[in-house]
């Protein structure tokens, strides 16, 4: 899809990291923007920054794990701007640690935000996009953790594999319509964002009251915080995403290691070997 000034972008998780960079890139491209996030102060900050970039923008506080919230987000976008051309389903959280030590709340949080959030958005936005007959494109943020696996990150990687599968199925379904609506999937490696402190936005219904801090969780979160701090800048990711949308690419990797890692994974599958651990860089 060619992106042109006046088109409308909706970005979830726009209060921080990759989402904020995508919203700012949309502003720099002359788009009108609906920014959504669960964290109101950071969302307000993003909307202010979009205004400073000269964009028309609104902020809609949204918990993507809640279907009604996402329906309200779509209502707000169509009421304010009358169209949605680019939908970036980017909100996400990291929930890790040894799988068997995780509570159902840990699992439900990861799946609720990283998978249900996408399902809600497909149901809320796609019918309106198909009806509108204007070019529209959906970018779902998954992860390299949706293509390769490793230890200490079961809930996160599982939710991201589901995000990749969902987006492939979505692309197939959209093709059957013959309409100008398409989808792609962003599969980043390490990006310098606040993902290591995802727990700051964990919903009350998924907090395990009275649980002692778990050493396996503390270990993997510290490792993630340290490794993402040395990662790629979110602004570079936003450029890759906009280029990929314009090129019509389905897969949007961020680092060259993507190619070696998926090749190695497929070799392991062909040879029936145990999967090699992800090399996140
Ligand atoms: N940073 C990385 O290394 C990396 C790598 C691969 C994939 N990703 C993915 O990129 C996406 C963006 O994450 P990021 O790295 O920018 O982290 P981030 O924490 O900086 O930003 C995530 C944003 O999502 C928001 N959010 C969290 N739960 C939400 C909810 N229920 N509803 C709405 N908003 C919610 C947060 O408030 C935050 O503003 C996520 O899907 C993440 O899984 C990140």
Automatic annotation (TrEMBL):
InterPro entries assigned to the protein according to its UniProt record, in alphabetical order: NAD(P)-bd_dom_sf (IPR036291), SDR_fam (IPR002347)
Xref: CDD domains: SDR_c
MF terms in GO: oxidoreductase activity
Pfam families found in the cross-reference section: adh_short
GO CC terms of this entry: membrane
Keyword line: Oxidoreductase
Family that this chain belongs to: Belongs to the short-chain dehydrogenases/reductases (SDR) family.
PANTHER family per UniProt: DEHYDROGENASE/REDUCTASE SDR FAMILY MEMBER 7B, DEHYDROGENASE_REDUCTASE SDR FAMILY MEMBER 7B
Annotated protein name in UniProt: Unannotated protein
Organism encoding this protein: freshwater metagenome
